[in-house]
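Appendix B, example 12.
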Amino acid sequence: MRLLRLFIALLFAAAVTVAIPVPAQAADVGVPGPSYAGDGVATPTADKAQSKLWFQDGSWWGLLWSASTHATKIHRLDAATQAWQETATVVDDRPSARGDALWDVTSGKLYVVSGTTVLSEWSSPPSEEEVASGSAELHRFSYDAVTKAYSEDAGFPVTLHGESTESITVAKDSVGKLWVTYTVVSADNSNRVYVNHSTTSDTEWGTPFVLPTTNAQVHHDDISAVTSFQGDKIGIMWSNQRTGHKRFYLAIHQDGQPEKSWQTEVAYGGGNNCTGGCANDHLNLRQLTSDGSGRLYAAIKTAHQNAGQTFVALLVRDGKGQWTSAEFGAVEDAHTRPIVMIDEEHRQIWMFAVAPEEGGTIYYKTAPIDNVSFAPGAGTPIISSSTDTDINDPTSTKQNVNSQTGLVVLAASRTNARYWHAHIALGG
């Protein structure tokens, strides 16, 4: 009997031991990736408006820095091992260059616009020397399904402009023209939003021009982003943190119309969904194509400073041009660098952001496409590390996703100079 009681006591003790929760720091979230150490590379997954990934031929691909060959190269994500495999294709060997990737299904071409980057702060614009020392290039690659390799087409790269900028993005319209936008820092503080486009072919380009609107003069810390939407339009969105503005604007160009024919509207600020410190230089765009509504989505960060105020939000423009906003996080949540992704198949919005602002953990929240509303709080961790404590700058693809593609988010940590990513299998 005594042995029986002892046996029962041991079983009970074992059960109690199993129930003790495992400390949170015992397991990381996400997958550590290759190192980008050396060559002076910093923030390789920046900038906020850019997309470093794309899905093609059953695989995820990305623009990652190769520490061994000292260049940004195309990498493929092995689905079985979740390891990034370096390919032979070099995109850009400049350590300060940051790329924006567009996989174009119609032409079967991969476009990458890659520009040298100046990282400005609100209080300290980059020097004239920093701005003048760089340039932006357009690359175009063809894909061989047999060898599963990309090769750069003849005639590329094409130089788009001869200055460094904080961000440059690319889109393609319905008549086959490529469009880019970026902001240029000037010595006289007359910083502007610039636009350019291809003309008779992908290798022939016009002269860059200032976006023709009275709101195109911006603060040196502002950025712009370009996208195609509604099947026949190009949209350029930008932040304007100058006194008297403090808003996000959208300029719309109808495909096929003269290059300087644009209609401008306020997306956020000036009483439109926000009053006060409504603009910050954090902006990420996506468009919904599957249901014909032509909705446009923008993940943005505000300049609010008081607890309870909206700090990160998702802006939605409907097919009639009306803007609404949904709060992703309040000031006390300290989110930064938000990006938005669209799962068209399951009609879900996925939104990601970093907290705290200096880098740390990447969180996500989801919401139905037709009723965008996010739960309060930080969200659910999707990339986090007990050793790489400053993970930052999440990026993904311009493409909308589904259960066939899944969803991949790439980020980077300065602590150990390495990449991190998360793969999400999108179920029903």
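The chain is about 5% helix and 45% strand. The chain has one domain: 33-424.
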